[in-house]
Design goal:
Helices cover 9% and strands 28% of the residues. The model has no long low-confidence stretch (mean pLDDT 91). It has one helix spanning 63-73; strands at residues 14-17, 24-28, 34-42, 48-55, 97-103. A hairpin with a 5-residue loop joins strand 3 (34-42) and strand 4 (48-55). It has one domain. By secondary structure, it is mainly beta. It is built from 1 helix and 5 strands, in the order ββββαβ.
Length: 119
């Protein structure tokens, strides 16, 4: 299992901004991309997860935005999962917010490469 990005290390491209208690928030310097992190959250599987939400004020974050957030706040060698819920489970609090979930010290996914090492 690969180690998640260390949130206490300085983020050169990011500045800390106010957050809710128990969360960390960052904004990309000279940009509108914002990140909100809930670390070590235990969901109903009984395991710990890092929940990283990221948004822009007036448009959906791009693929490049998502990859920047994943690299900086989850890590290049760690898995991140984006959940596309059933319509009945969907809740929209912010029109332009996406979410990544990273497992902490476990891997909930099967080997989708079927042994080939490539997806």
């Amino acid at each position: 299992m690969n180690k998640l990005a260390n949130l206490s290390e300085p983020k050169i491209l990011w500045q800390r901004v106010p957050a809710f208690p128990g969360q960390l928030a960052f904004q990309l310097i000279n940009d509108s991309l914002c990140v909100l992190i809930s670390d070590k959250v235990e969901y109903d599987d009984g395991k710990l997860w890092r929940h990283v939400s990221f948004s822009r004020p007036n448009r959906m974050p791009s693929y490049d935005d998502m990859m920047r957030v994943k690299l900086d706040f989850i890590g290049e060698n760690c898995k991140a999962i984006m959940v596309l819920p059933a319509k009945s489970e969907h809740v929209n609090i912010h029109d332009y917010c996406l979410h990544l979930y990273a497992p902490i010290n476990h891997d909930p996914l099967p080997d989708f490469t079927m042994g080939s090492g490539m997806i």
